[in-house]
Amino acid sequence: MGEALKIIRADGVEGLTMRRLSDRLGVAVGATYKHVPTKDHLLRLVTLELYARVGPCEPTGADWCAGIRSFLLRFRQVVGAYPGMVGHISAHGTDPMPHRLYTSLNGTLRAVGFSPAGADRVVRVLFFYTSGAMLAPLAPDEHADADAEFAAGLDLVLDGVHRSLERDRAATA
Q: Does the first or last residue of the chain, that is N or C, have fewer Cβ atoms within 10 Å of its Cβ?
């Protein structure tokens, strides 16, 4: 997995081929295919590795929004370091957020009082914003600090999430 990640980090998803990976590993292409049957399968494994690196959503005390913010910034940093991975995940129907990450974020939202439906809705909104921002980055000449722009937008979204908690509680009471 390490060599595949190095190739993607340097040359993007399009730069990863089974032949190139085999050359890096010093093995015949057939040997690579014996362990990983297709490039799509390899990219699925890469995706799972990146998600593992993101880790769980860990709320920080009473400020649960800060824990969610940290989680999504980490998601963007980890996955965004590998050019083309977000596009690949979106285009190939790979689960945008595996069960482990979903459960972690959803659990945080449920713990602070969101209903099951409300927590699901918030999870989707947060990942739509995060993935969308990664798929359509801001023009560097107009927005010199994309990280700051993303964080500012995330703060706006999280403000809305925080305000929606009381509405969600009232609707399910």
A: C
